[in-house]
Amino acid sequence: MKRRAAALLISTLAAQTAMAPTAMAQSVDIATITCADLADMPSASVEMLLTWIDGYMGGQASDTGFDVERLQSNIDGAATLCGENPDATLMDVLHQAENG
After folding, report:
1. Percent helix, percent strand, percent coil in the chain, to nearest 5
2. pTM above the 0.85 mark?
């Protein structure tokens, strides 16, 4: 489990480093990203975005823990919900996945 969490963290940091010039040039309101938008993003951006949202949602819930299994469960649930409704916002489906 620790090895998997470390690998995820390393890949996320690598993606952030590779995307740094692009990310600094753009500002995006995460709440407006839809499931359809997510399908058009490079996988490294998707990983970084989903990790960021997990941290944001944890902050909103005053939860400072990083639970890789919970993150994966939420991503899997969101993927199912996104497949059913591509016009839904990513934040909405992640909230649904977390609560459902």
Report:
1. 75, 0, 20
2. no
Residues 6+ apart with CB under 8 A from 54: 66, 70, 71, 74, 94
How many distinct structural domains can be found in the chain? 1
- Going from the C-alpha of 27 to that of each of 22, 40, 44, the distances in angstroms are 10, 17, 17
34 beta partners: 89
Nearest to residue 67, comparing CAs of 17, 11, 4?
A: 4
Which domain, by its residues, includes 10? Answer: 2-99
At 10-30, the pLDDT tens digits run 554 454 444 444 444 478 888
Residue 81: enclosing H or E segment and its boundaries? helix 68-84
Tokens 């996988």 correspond to 43
Q: Say whether 89 sits in a helix, a strand or coil.
A: strand
Domain holding 6: CATH number? 1.10.890.10
